[in-house]
Amino acid sequence: MDEKLKELKETMGTLTDLGHASSLLSWDQETYMPPGGVESRGRALATLGKMAQEIGTDEKVGKLLEELGPWAAEQDPDSDDARLIIVSQRAYDKAVKVPPDMVAERAMLTTMANAAWREAREKSDYSIFEPHMEKIIEFNQRYADLFKPYEHAYDVLLDDYEPKMKTEDVKKIFADIRPKQVELIEKIANAKQVDDSVLFKHYPKAEQIAMGEEIAKLIGYDFNRGRQDEVHHPFQTTIGYGDQRITYRVDENFFNTYIFSIMHEGGHAMYEQGVPKSLSRTALYGGTSLAVHESQSRMWENLVGRSLPFWEFYYPKLQARFPEQTKGVSMEDFYKAVNKVEPSYIRVEADEATYNLHIMLRLEIEIGLLEGTIAVKDLPQVWDDKFEEYLGIRPRNNAEGVLQDVHWSFGLFGYFSTYALGNLVSLQLWEKINEDIPGLDDQMRSGEFGKLLGWLNENVHAHGSKFYPQDLVQRITGSKINGDAYIKYLNKKFGDIYGL
Ligand SMILES: [Zn+2]
Questions:
Q1: 205 vs 250: CA distance, rounded Å
Q2: Is 129 left (phi over 0), alpha (psi -120 to 50) or beta?
Q3: Residue 295 Cα, ligand 1 centroid: separation in angstroms?
Q4: What is the pLDDT of residue 90?
Q5: What CA–CA distance (Å, rounded) separates 297 from 76?
Q6: Residue 475 CB coordination number (10 Å)
Q7: How close is the Cα of 294 to the center of ligand 1, in Å?
Q8: Predicted local distance difference test score (pLDDT) of residue 348
Q9: DSSP characters for 244-290?
Q10: Using N-to-C axis directions, what is the helix angle for 417-436 and 469-477, rounded to 10°?
Q11: Which residues keep their CB under 5 angstroms from ion ligand 1?
Q12: 265 among known catalytic residues
């Protein structure tokens, strides 16, 4: 069996290498590639993708997995090798169901759709994107049908990002938290609003970047294994073991944009930096799901970065760096400013209390589109109506409404709910962390984050993608993904800030 396992691992190593090469090409495309390179870059990425698909779905791999299955069943079920075979079998079974033609079709479709979406958003004209959206929905229906029988077509799409999660589970979780979040937001709307004008002063770019590097290092992001570069839409990417890069956007006239994107992407990167070398070049390398990944980024962004203890520590340094901008603003007022709650149009800029509502709205719309109860041509109207119903405000145009976000143009359906689930998981973990690390607030107050990162390394990162997300959360916290801790946190935090 050792020989066969070795052979399987070699194939996976090749697949991982191809994936990393693609990541580097994509990273370069977003950061430094001259515009003239777009066509040949697209071709190179398509070739690498096709090679990976061919290697990953080769009969040889299927046969190896078949032979290794019974052996794996006799190993310690939590061992790396047993999990490697189970996780790889699942990936293989899924990959072979998708004909190579459809892989190519998706690449072509989304390249065109993304270009159309950019133009549509710029002109705030949905009609430019509509025909592409029709094709994307039709494609996703066809894709889901490859996996019949299913309980719900949406399960198939969700499963690509959140293994084993069911649409019904997500709906139940959202139905539980929605009224509680709405109640809180209504209370806040009736309270005295905080003054956040300090955030809209001029913060020069170079100074912001120096501050970001200082904070990223402070919380434990390792620049020997990473770097930060500027992009339009920030993301984190792993180019290989020891190379986890983050990207950022700077707005010189709005403080939040840069600092929280660095802490957010830094959180994603520290997850990947914490996955042990023994799992690299295998199917167990990297984070286990988007929700768990998002739990890490949101934890550093919000539970650390928007916390009182963090600003108790960092505010004097901020004042030293930006004396004019912060003049006459107390630490408490600055803390309140970065936590201001106000329904807003754009999800990525939403505060913690309203954020999940943006996601719930999308889930409802995506399911409606897939079930055919919402027509693509009606989407702008449906979006605006539902937006008003969920957030109490109505988008003034399609650019800030239905066209605001890039995901759909990339064909990404079933993706959004992981953002909200990540928020919930971050709090489930946070409760457990505070049980395990007494005095965590005091540590943050003195700029000490090593114990927190160490806990995450040991309990979350060390497992890579060995365990499916619900199982991982259950193992660590004793319960599956749910919103109890999140709601408790929101009520306490914003109750204090707004004196509710
Ligand atoms: Zn993220």
A1: 7
A2: alpha
A3: 8
A4: 95
A5: 32
A6: 12
A7: 5
A8: 87
A9: EEEEE---TT-HHHHHHHHHHHHHHHHHHHTS-GGGTTSTT-S-S-H
A10: 20
A11: 297
A12: yes
Cβ atoms of residues 117 and 129 within 8 Å: yes
| Of the candidates 123, 137, 442, 176, the residue with the CA atom closest to the CA atom of residue 309 | 442
Pairing mode of beta strands 228-230, 236-240? unpaired
CA 351 to ligand 1 center in whole angstroms:
15
Taking the CA atoms of the chain, what radius of gyration do you get in angstroms?
Answer: 23
Supply φ then ψ for residue 49, to 5 degrees.
-65, -40
Report the pLDDT value the prediction gives residue 226, as an integer from 0 to 100. Answer: 97
Which pLDDT does position 287 carry in this prediction? 96
* Averages of pLDDT over each 10 residues, the chain, 500 residues: 92 95 92 87 86 93 96 95 96 92 83 88 96 96 95 95 96 96 95 97 98 98 97 92 96 97 97 97 95 98 98 98 98 98 92 96 95 96 95 94 92 93 98 97 98 98 97 98 98 97
Contact assessment for residue 464 and residue 292, using Cβ atoms and an 8 Å cutoff? no
Helix (H, G, I), strand (E, B) or coil at 230: strand
Nearest alpha carbon to residue 298 among 272, 265, 275 = 265
Q: Which amino acid is at 92?
A: Y
Q: Exactly one of 162, 265, 272, 366 is catalytic; name it.
A: 265
Residue 305 and residue 267: Cα distance in Å, rounded? 11
What distance, in Å, lies between the first and last C-alpha atoms of the chain?
63
Q: What is the Cα–Cα distance from 140 to 152, expressed in whole angstroms?
A: 13
Distance CA 186, CA 434 (A): 29
Tokens matching residue 268: 């994603």
d(CA 369, CA 378): 10
Q: With contact defined as beta carbons under 8 Å apart, do 52 and 17 qualify?
A: no
Q: Which amino acid is at 53?
A: Q
What is the CB neighbour count within 10 angstroms for residue 252?
A: 14
* CB 267 within 8 Å of CB 396: no
Helix/strand/coil for 439 = coil
For residue 149, is the peptide bond before it cis, meaning its omega torsion is within 30 degrees of 0?
yes
> In degrees rounded to 5, what are phi and psi of residue 246?
-120, 155
* Cβ 433 vs Cβ 454: under 8 Å: no
The rounded Å distance from CA 354 to ligand 1 centre is 17
- Going 242 to 248 to 252 to 256, the CA torsion angle's sign is negative
Of 238, 220, 245, 226, the C-alpha closest to 281 is: 238
If you measure from the C-alpha of residue 292 to the centroid of ligand 1, how many angstroms do you get, rounded to a whole number? 10
The residue behind tokens 């329904």 is 343
**pLDDT at position 36:** 87
Are 305 and 260 contacting, i.e. CB atoms less than 8 angstroms apart?
Answer: yes
Amino acid present at 446: S
